[in-house]
Structure formats: C-alpha cells, structure tokens
Amino acid sequence: MSQLLAQNRFSDEQLQWLQLIREHLVKNLTIELDDFDAPIFFQRGGLGKANKVFAGELAPLLPRINEALASA
Predict the structure, then answer these.
(1) What's the pLDDT at 21?
(2) Using an 8 Å Cβ cutoff, are 22 and 15 in contact?
(3) Mean pLDDT of successive 10-residue segments in the chain (72 residues)?
(4) Element (H, E) at 55
(5) What does the domain layout of the chain look like in residue ranges?
(6) How far are the Cα atoms of 5, 35, 52, 58 from residue 48, in angstroms, in the given order?
(7) How far apart are CA 11 and CA 31, in angstroms?
(8) What share of the chain is helix, strand, coil (3-state, %, to 5)?
C-alpha cells in the first residue's frame, strides 16, 4: 500500500477512504467492490460514496491495491 501511496496523489478524503481500506485489509486478504457493504464502509456512505470520492475510478484501483498487498 505504501508503494501505491508513493506513486499517486490522493486528496485528504481519498486518504481517509484508503485508511478504511487498510483497516479492512488487516482482517481480510483482499478488497472487492462487494466489501463496501461492510459496516466500516457502509456507515460512511458505502460503495456509492467511495466511488464518488475516487471520481468513478474505485473499480480499477482495487486490483492495484490487492496487487500491491500481494507483492509486499
């Protein structure tokens, strides 16, 4: 995840969502779109809000996060 953060510029709000994703990844090995139904995300607006925060680019970002985690 550190590599992904170093290679991209994220807004403060995006960084907050990435922190939530990091918390999810502590308990799970991957992150998928379906995971945004989990309470940690749902209480903050779920998939719709996350996708809006990432300007519709959440779906392509998740595999990059999973790949970064797998290569760490």
Answers:
(1) 95
(2) no
(3) 82 95 93 96 97 96 90 74
(4) none
(5) 2-71
(6) 22, 12, 6, 10
(7) 20
(8) 75, 0, 25
